[in-house]
Model the fold of this input.
Amino acid sequence: MDAGNAVAEDAIGSAMTYLEKNKGAKVAKKSVVEVEGTEAYVTVEKVCGELDSMLDGGTPPDLVLDLTKIGISSEVVKSLSLTLGLPTVSAALGEEGDIREWRELTDAQKQYLIQVRPPGDLLPNIIRDLAMASNITNAGILYDKTFVMDHQYKSLLLNMPVRHIINKVKTSTLS
Done:
């Protein structure tokens, strides 16, 4: 997961709590690797180091949850999953075919390399669809840090007769 990705951290915690409370799948060992930066070799060393320790301990991963969003670290994690044949669910931003490393998968690889678009990537498209379906002429769109609007900001309501303002709201936590 990307370093500082509070949404991913919360999602992992919630999933683990749900599994414990509902007697779901048993997680023998949970391992989280935080990656960041633009140096591919650093990400390779971190991820491969964790995989080595899991293999040495006799607990190879049954599933990799790739919670990286974009960038070199994200590309490295996807390349490693593909190269090592690790069953992976990736919550990468973008549509089908946007993961460059996974564009030409065999039928067998499509069975264990899966992309699931995160809600923060889907909801902006819902805004566009609602604006079209409802014939909206004015819109105010407010979003928080859990939404990644960088790659959709300019094109969200492009070529639509909708006057709009899009602003990121500042949030704070109550002590």
Summary: The chain has a mean pLDDT of 83. The CA atoms of residues 1 and 68 lie 5 Å apart. The longest helix spans residues 40-56.
